[in-house]
Amino acid sequence: MDATLSEIEFLALSPNRVAVLELLAADWHTRSELAAETGASQATLGRILGDFEDRKWVRRTEGGYVATATGRLVAEGFRDLLDILETERDLRDIVDYLPTDAMDFDLRHLADATITTPSQTRPNAPLQRLLSLMRDADDVTAFSHAFNDQSLSVAADRAGSQQFRAILSQSAVDALTGDETLRARLRSLVETETASIGVYDGEIPLAVTIVDDVVNLLVRDERGVLQAAVDTDHPTVHSWAEARFEDYREQSAPLTAADLRP
């Protein structure tokens, strides 16, 4: 273990070592090319390449250098570690609120996600992020334990020109139907041929909206206060969200206009 940690430290302490190994893992390079790519001096490159040769991570060939099979293995593994830590840094401030038990996909798929958090000047930024996506979408698919009046308004305004499908928990529907104005708006939406809503009689621990090719997760704290919106177009997350929606849809009852009459 100590020897392995020493090798990790050897790479981690020098961005130039990481860059050189990744370049040589991708293709053959001369020292001049490595210098141009990394900005390292020839003296620095000489030390790095010598250390790599001692470890048999690279070999000389045709006036240049290329990574060996084990060198490529190390480069790939170290890149994976860097990607994991970069993703962790992005999620660190909201990880306490993420419903990870229900997010059965690798969190590394959120590496390129857009994370929108509240600020003093924009306390509703996470919700506004979702609403802006919904306004421009051709297709919206959602499953959630909550559906606020602003999301309902956008869906109702786009009714007829946007395909809208949603599975809502019974508690979310009850919250909407308890208000006369929202009940009427919800009834208008379900009367549209391009919209369908199902009611799931159970817990939905997530608030997920698929907006065209983007998956949006609204993240709340234990009090129900929005803490972030997380958006990603990663195909694995998209497939996960579609599959979860279908699971809930199969166990849901359709909401009809008749259900929403006063």
From TrEMBL:
UniProt xrefs under Pfam families: FilR1_middle, HVO_A0261_N
Gene3D superfamilies recorded: Winged helix-like DNA-binding domain superfamily/Winged helix DNA-binding domain
Domain Methanogenesis regulatory protein FilR1 middle, first and last residues per copy: 123-251
HVO-A0261-like N-terminal domain mapped to chain residues: 6-89
Protein name: ArsR family transcriptional regulator
Organism lineage: Archaea, Methanobacteriati, Methanobacteriota, Stenosarchaea group, Halobacteria
